Amino acid sequence: ARMLASRSTARPTFAAARRTDADRPSSSHAAVKPRRIQPPRATKGAIVMPTFDPSSQSSYPATAVTHVAFDVDVDFDEKVISGTATASVKVQSESSTLVLDTRDLHIERVQLDGADLTFSIGETHPVMGAPLVIELGKQMEKDASFDVVITYRTSPSSSAVQWLRPEQTAGGKHPYLFTQCQAIHARSLFPCQDTPGAKMTYSAKVTAPNPLTALMSAIPIGEPADAGEGKSSFEFKQDVPIPPYLLALAVGNVEAVEIGPRSKVWSEPEMVQAGAFEFSETEDFLKAAEQVAGPYVWGRYDLLLLPPSFPYGGMENPCLTFVTPTLLAGDRSQAHVVAHEIAHSWSGNLVTNKTWEHFWLNEGFTVFIERKIMNKMYGKSVFDFNAIGGLMELKETVARLGTNHPHTVLKPELAGGVDPDDVFSKVPYEKGFAFLVYLEHMTRGNGDGPEHADAANGTPEFAEFLIEHFQRHQYATVESDDFKAAYTARFPEASAQVDWDAWLTKPGMPPVDIGQYYDGGSSEASAGLARKWHLCDVLGMGGEGTRPEGASADDIKDFSSMQVDHFLLSLIEYRGGSHALSVSVVKSLDELYKLSESKNSEIRCKWLQLRLAAGDAGAFKPARDMLRSQGRMKFLRPLYRSLSKSKAEGGKKFAEETFSGARNMYHPIAEKMVAADLGM
């Protein structure tokens, strides 16, 4: 979720994406201290802290779940999903127990070969939930396999599921649900080994009330069947192993429009045509991605355009990417979010970080592939423009968190009960991307200087190495040392010059000035205009009519929406939080450029941030309108924080009142993060 810039319909040279959607790690990530929570005490039926993954209490890899078969019913009245999950288990070390992660699940029964098994729920950990400890009745030998059938139901408060009332949907007539399991929320959807390392295949039968349609991160099998009592059942199959966080379910009044030979857009009828128009370039992105990363193994690449409360810009659920309606700009200016989610089909989905401590291997690689896709489709200037924007956002994140903050480390430590949600930021995305740009540049053999730099086109040797990386580790997981070893074996001379420890374990900005590898020409116009406005009001005391000499509406007449976005981002960076623009200068900006009239969500959010920082009380209402109309964390968090810190009187109270009135429409993850930002 994860940043979004735009390109005009006319497609100027650099009018394309700066970043798809990494607002999962929003640039508005709160500068919070790491939450280290004491491990749960060992109790009867519980376990001590795990050794494989600090974010999971499961018994993986000693006993590994390799497949799950679901047969579940969706109950909108009770807001629960109930049924059975049959887990196929491979014993990799002798064991008499199977331990699964759970949170807010009711476990009714566990069976093996038709016989009931003894099970217990361990003590609840505030971050990781409670372990489900299943006594297998005997010592299972290494390489043994067995199936356990778990009868369970979710809780209405499941952090993975959002239940929407009809009035919260576009159609207003039917309820809707969707899930979001990243990072460790799958355990509140079904009992599982909720660690990225525990990859599994799955099949599912989902029963839902008519006339709703069920969709999953899998291939649909056959047609819906009549299940009686006004319900239909839907079947799915996912034969490519996935980590539990990529299991996804949505149920709503949706229909589909074909947009390519292997792609559909699903949405409520009221939005589906708009989605089909916005994402019509999906097949072009897929073909470009295959040139960069290798064959696409997932069969289908469909998109589900969700209701506005979806907390991210996009989520890379296999076969069915979830996307937010805030991308519907009407001019395809934000549709490149698909490039990022498509890139995840290789980095994250096909090859997955072993634990969340190595999240940069998911997201840094994905941003790298995404921008290589954009280079193939739109050229080097687009790559450089996007890379420069990403570097600006990384600087903003590091400045806000603090240069020594542990969350600015590329490979953070999560031991001791640190919530992975708290650690997500731009760092794994943009610092990870910068590291890969640097590693590729070093394969040129010219040292780390800018000589012959061409980050967009890179080197043939590194391009081959990237494809080999995905082929070598496909269907499996990696950690940072695996990647370091492979790079060192392929490029020993380059690796010897890399300070791996500084890149991976030291906080702050990258140890190398990565900006020297980009051509700033494509961003000169927007950055230069921001500089002029900054200099005309350096102290934030400009009076009525203050503006740069010669400023006029023509300044941005030929700008793409991406350039306007970059202009505002540059202004935010110039002000640095120390001296906001004056209200008079903000009003001059709006008089000339009509920024308040923009329908582009990226532009609206940044413009409101500038107005609120200036103390413009007139921005309160439009900020509240935006906060009430969508639930995307990329916009929620910076706007709430800007409201709370606004120089205008009553900003903090207005932010808290707005959140209190709107929090029930937000996804549980978004609600949790905003509440933390506001101290509520």
Question: How does this structure look, described?
Answer:
The protein has 680 residues and is α+β, with helices and mostly antiparallel strands. Helix 4 crosses helix 7 (426-442). It contains 19 helices and 22 strands. Residues 1-49 have low confidence and may be disordered.
List the helices and strands and how they pair.
Layout: E1 63-75, E2 80-91, E3 95-102, E4 106-112, E5 115-116, E6 119-121, E7 130-140, E8 145-153, E9 161-164, E10 176-179, E11 200-209, E12 213-216, E13 219-228, E14 231-242, E15 249-252, E16 255-260, E17 263-267, H1 272-278, H2 282-293, E18 302-305, E19 314-315, E20 320-323, H3 337-343, E21 351-353, H4 360-378, H5 380-401, H6 420-423, H7 426-442, H8 460-473, E22 476-478, H9 480-490, H10 492-496, H11 500-505, H12 524-535, H13 561-575, H14 583-593, H15 601-614, H16 620-629, H17 633-645, H18 651-662, H19 668-678
What fraction strand? 15-25%
Secondary structure: helix percent: 25-40%
Instruction: Give the termini distance in whole angstroms.
Output: 24 Å
Number of helices, where a helix is a run of at least 4 consecutive DSSP H or I residues: 19
Low-confidence stretches at least 5 residues in length (pLDDT < 50)?
Answer: 1-49
Structural class based on helices, strands and sheet pairing: alpha+beta
**Rough shape?**
globular
Q: Count of DSSP E strands?
A: 22
Question: How confident is the prediction overall: mean pLDDT?
Answer: 91
- Sheet with the most strands: spatial strand order: 5-4-8-2-1-11-14-13
Rg, rounded, reads 25 Å
